[in-house]
Amino acid sequence: MTDNGPQPDAEDLRRRTRDLLASHPPATTGHSDFLRARFDAGLAWVHYPEGLGGLGAPRSLQAVVDAELAAADAPDNDPRRIGIGLGMAAPTVLRYGTDEQKRRFLRPLWTGEEVWCQLFSEPGAGSDLAALATRAVREEGGDWIVTGQKVWTSSAHLARWAILIARTDPDVPKHRGITYFICDMTDPGVEVRPLRQITGEAEFNEVFLTDVRIPDAHRLGPVGDGWKVAQTTLMNERVSIGGARIPREGGMIGSVARTWRERPELRTHDLHQRLLTLWVDAEVARLTAERLRQQLVAGQPGPEGSGMKLAFARLNQEISGLEVELLGDEGLLYSDWSMRRPEYVDFTGRDAGYRYLRSKGNSIEGGTSEVLLNIVAERVLGLPSEPRNDKDAAWKDLAR
């Protein structure tokens, strides 16, 4: 239910969308003005509460709005560019943020006026994220002073804000002494350095934090409860990576299938069998992702998203490997080694060599495949947990 009555249905959302288009014609309305108007009309993410870009409607009805806007050639918010904000920061702010935080951050996040990044992983805390060493110390006045280093940070070179976890109590076990913050990336103590990767470009960064001041008003959740808050972020991250909505034969399987159809001289029986197998696997993953998104209507994402992210990484790597092999000598070519700092990853708009190299990172980013296999084993299949000797030890006493 919304604050003003029953939930809108599909026809009501069509009417609201057409009213938006009539009052803000895409052809004559500025890009940002249209997106702000869409947010204010509750048509940004319809399942969010009224006043925060939504109408309290079922999540599944977002497709009704999107179809009307696409038919009218209305501008979107370039979700690839702001994916971290949309897929990770927003659900966390919505669940744990104060009313003031929600009003301040959600609108410019959704319109893309403020880009977000994620300051989680560290040189010594990647797979074991709870071992993080970045420290946040509270001053008498209430502000927090943060010092440490983060790594593998996508979009840090573009970001206005970051979601950040830092250690606030080293005297308790590692999962219990963490607090979750919103960090201002324009603070003079924030330094962003590019990390050049195997593709030749630097979409990732390392971030150095030196006496960065964060007001307590930018804390999400209780002090020391940051690991619980971070689980919301991580579960949503894995769904956003592995459960993106794509059409049949979309994504990377579409690229190799197109090459197969257009280049019959490259075909062999063995490659045909492998392509058929991967095509079926990709379609199964696509349909499973659709089912997972429908389950989200009932609540927050669960550990099943880890399975989807696992499948995403495996498929991308196997499909890109098949494409390079199919192309033969052409597959060894690489069009551009220029050092760039792109705004987003473009798997389908680049050549086969790029897809092959970039997909190697899929089994690392968003949680390594090894860690996700443990999550699936323990939290989906109910298998016994691996033995751990650091569960009850204070973080400060752990070997590093």
Structural summary, described in words:
- By secondary structure, the protein is of the alpha+beta class.
- The chain has eleven helices and eight strands.
- A four-stranded mixed sheet has the order 1-4-5-8.
- It is globular.
- The mean pLDDT is 91.
Gist of the model:
This protein has about 400 residues and is an alpha+beta fold.
Largest sheet: 4 strands, mixed
Give the termini distance in whole angstroms. 50 Å
User: What strand line-up does the widest sheet have?
Assistant: 1-4-5-8
Unreliable stretches covering 5 or more consecutive residues: none
Structural class: alpha+beta
The number of helical runs is 11
Mean of the pLDDT scores?
Answer: 91
Give the radius of gyration: 22 Å
List keywords for this structure.
400 residues, alpha+beta
What is the topological layout?
Elements: H1 10-23, H2 31-40, H3 62-71, H4 83-96, H5 99-111, E1 116-119, E2 135-138, E3 144-150, E4 161-167, E5 178-184, E6 190-195, E7 204-214, E8 219-220, H6 226-242, H7 252-262, H8 269-295, H9 304-327, H10 352-358, H11 369-380
Parallel strand pairs: 1-4
Antiparallel strand pairs: 2-3, 3-7, 4-5, 5-8, 6-7
Helix pairs in contact: 1-3, 2-5, 4-5, 4-6, 6-9, 7-9, 8-9, 9-10, 9-11
